[in-house]
Amino acid sequence: MHAYHQQTKHGLHRYAAGPMGLDWANQPDPFRTWGGAERVPLEVVLPSDEPKYGPSLSRGMVPRHDLDRQSISRLFFDSFSLSAWKQAGEARWALRVNPSSGNLHPTEAYLLAPPIEGVSEHPVVAHYAPREHCLELRAQVPDELWGSLTLGLPAGSFFIALTSIHWREAWKYGERAYRYCQHDAGHGIAALAIAAGGMGWSVDLCDQIGTEDLARLVGVWAEEGPDAETPDCLLLVCPSGEGGILDASAAAAAAQFPALEWKGRSNDLSREHEEWDAIDLAARASVRPSGPDSHGEWERTPRTAPLPQETPGLRRIIRQRRSAVALDGKAGISARAFYGILENVMPRAGRVPFDTLPWSPRLHLAIFVHRVEGLEPGLYWLQRDEARKDALRAACRPEFLWARPADCPSDLPLSLLFPSDLKQTASQVSCNQDIAADGAFSLGMIADFDRSVEEGAWFYPRLFWEAGAIGQVLYLEAEVLGLRGTGIGCYFDDAVHSILALRDTTLQSLYHFTLGQPVEDERLTTLEPYE
Fold first, then answer.
1. pTM score, whole prediction
2. Cα gap 267→115, rounded to integer Å
């Protein structure tokens, strides 16, 4: 994966390989369908003011909902559904609850669930179709086989599986698209975990199920070609809120799924495709075998700061989330608001969505502070795993101050590296995009890279999942403040590393983000997602 990562870096004098221009005639269809599969419409469960955003980010702080058709409808409505249609002249396109690089949406979601009245009388595998907000029933699962898959799990447990269609991103971004697909998988993991948290449900990533077994579970093991789906991850959802661990029998159960009676044929997304060998090589290299996860135990620090209670309704925030196209270059935020944002991206015990990920934190934040009232502009560092503090500091520029801001909460591991006006620098390293300089702050998510991929090439996409999860929280935090955020996938990798004086690949930048007051495009008309 080192080779793929190096090959797909953007540089000041050379971008990663991509298409010479956009082939609009072959723009991929953003909606996968399984023609011939029975469709079950889901309910449009409109948002209310409860639960509040703040308590929903901590396990056990909101009442639990029963598993039924309405709650399943709400889960998908708040995680993968359409949030609006936009129109400019005759052009019309959909926005979704979950963010996506270029609004191209490579991520597909599947439900594996026990019998649910109004959905299926039997355990079922179903594909979620966001355009119609419905489930496409692909296969019934015998009770005995379902029992083997869910052995030892709390009653009512079910799964959401995520896959990626790499071509959707590669059409625009070329060989770097594999990275963006993994960002979007991380956005999806977090979107699901937060939506479930609003109903008192827990979500845990099941790394015991490998890539090939996951393909069997969702019925894509025989899919081939550029339009095919590549399995990403399996997520266990427990309405009891208890969480659980898959039994060793789950992999053997997955091996029996190809023998089920599968319904539906996947639609073609483009007439013609451009192949990117680097993506195929990366996908093959990152295949994970089934077996016990190797992440081990790690200590999650508890939250000591009080939970914010005076926050908006979670579901309104989820559904109003948008990606900013431009920021005004004027608006800032208070230091208190800034610290609150950083607190909510810390992987505390019971903190949604980061408690979904089984590994110790691998992503840290290098923050360009531009307009934070009461905080000196400059470069700051948020250490998300203090056990790695000394090792990561040793990899960085020796002249850095590592000074705690005077009014920073005592349990927030934030340090000033050096004071300076870095607006121009932030813009330059983000592919000369003004948006990185025009917000209250922008940041790079810096991965503990070598250590992670040494565990296996399969850890490479997981680094991007963690980055995407951080990004989704930052998006929602911006909305809570009446602002707007946007993820930045285009940046000059090694120019970022030079700011930190990184000499090797111990640390690598994987995703950028900015937050501020949006400049709206008045030419666009907003339409309801579902008429």
1. 0.97
2. 27
CA separation for the pair 508, 351 (Å, rounded): 25
Burial of 147 (0-12, 13-18, 19+ CB in 10 A): middle
DSSP string, 343-396: HHTS--TTBTTGGG--SPP-EEEEEEE-SEETS-SEEEEE-S-GGGHHHHHHHS
Q: Which of 294, 292, 288, 191 is nearest to 231 (CA)?
A: 288
Bridge partner residues of 488 (DSSP): 512
Let me know: does 514 contact 327? Beta carbons within 8 Å: yes
Per-residue model confidence (pLDDT) at position 292: 83
* Chain segment 306-363, per-residue pLDDT in tens: 666 578 999 999 999 999 999 999 999 999 999 999 999 999 999 999 999 999 999 9
Is the sign of the CA dihedral 513, 516, 519, 524 positive or negative?
positive
Q: Which residues in the chain are classed under CATH 3.40.109.10?
A: 61-267, 314-516
Q: What's the token pair of residue 418?
A: 């050096």
Distance, CA of 531 to CA of 527 (rounded, Å): 9
User: Is the link from the previous residue into 142 a cis peptide, with omega within 30 of 0?
Assistant: no
- Left (φ > 0), alpha (ψ -120 to 50) or beta: where does 374 sit? left
Answer whether the bond into residue 231 is a cis peptide, omega within 30°. Answer: no
Residues with Cβ < 8 Å from 224, sequence gap 6 or more? none
Query: Which of 491, 391, 502, 498 minimizes the C-alpha distance to 437?
Result: 491
Q: Splitting the chain (531 residues) into consecutive groups of 10 residues, what average pLDDT does each group show?
A: 97 96 96 98 95 94 97 99 95 96 98 98 99 99 98 97 98 98 99 98 96 98 95 98 91 97 97 96 96 77 66 96 97 97 96 96 99 98 96 95 96 97 98 98 98 96 99 98 98 98 97 97 92 82
**Strand partners for 403:** 416
Summarize pLDDT for 416-458 with one digit per residue, the tens.
999 999 999 999 999 999 999 999 999 999 999 999 999 999 9
Give Cα separations from 204 to 105, 118, 237 (angstroms): 23, 26, 7
Residue 529 CA, chain-centre distance (Å), reads: 22
Phi-psi region of 129 (alpha: psi -120 to 50; beta: other; left: phi over 0): beta
Topology classification of domain 314-516: NADH Oxidase (3.40.109)
Residue 50: helix, strand or coil by DSSP? coil
Close Cβ partners of 35 (under 8 Å, ≥ 6 residues apart)? 264, 265, 266, 267
CA–CA gap between residue 434 and residue 465 (Å, rounded): 26
Q: Which two tokens stand for residue 68?
A: 């039924």
H-only helix segments in 238-353: 249-254, 277-285, 314-320, 335-344
Looking at domain 61-267, its CATH superfamily turns out to be NADH Oxidase (3.40.109.10)
What are the tokens at 503?
């000499």
CA 230 to chain centre: 16
Answer for the pair 525, 84: CB distance below 8 angstroms, yes or no. no
